[in-house]
Amino acid sequence: PVLISIPIEWPKHYREHIAKIMFEKCNLPALYIAEQPLMALYAVGYTSGIVIDFGYERTRVVPILDNIVNTRAAQSLPIGNQDIDEYLLKLVKEDKIICSQLDSIAENEMINDKEE
User: Fold this and answer.
1) In terms of Cα–Cα distance, which of 57, 19, 24, 63 is closest to 40?
2) Which of 12, 34, 37, 56 is most buried when burial is the number of CB atoms within 10 A of its CB?
3) What residue ranges in the chain does DSSP mark as E strands?
């Protein structure tokens, strides 16, 4: 048996195509295709809740009630880890004290690497 988790945005024909390939080419005895937010909720032992997926380029908020993913209520925000990384980098670059401390740490690591 194989479990495949897919994004909630994928249309039904994608799922059907995956199932066809897996059964015909791989001779699977069983296949379960589920939405990624549902699998995340199952992983922590729940069947209802709100899953917040922080991706690199965007953040998805997906409500799930009794094993049913509510795709109509799901939201996708154009803010992700990339934006957070850029903001933190900007803050660090603007802070002279942090910059000098990071330089000292980097120099110490290079010295330690050379000694080894």
Assistant:
1) 63
2) 37
3) 2-6, 31-35, 49-54, 59-65, 68-69, 75-77
List the structure tokens of 105: 């740490």
pLDDT average per 10 residues of sequence, the chain (116 residues): 93 94 92 96 97 94 97 94 91 83 78 72
Q: Output the CA–CA distances (angstroms, integers) from residue 99 to 35, 81, 85, 104, in the order listed.
A: 43, 22, 16, 9
Instruction: Please give the DSSP secondary-structure letter assigned to residue 80.
Output: -
Q: What whole-number distance in Å separates Cα of residue 91 and Cα of residue 100?
A: 14
Confirm if 33 and 4 have CB atoms less than 8 A apart: yes
Write out the two tokens for 8: 């909630």
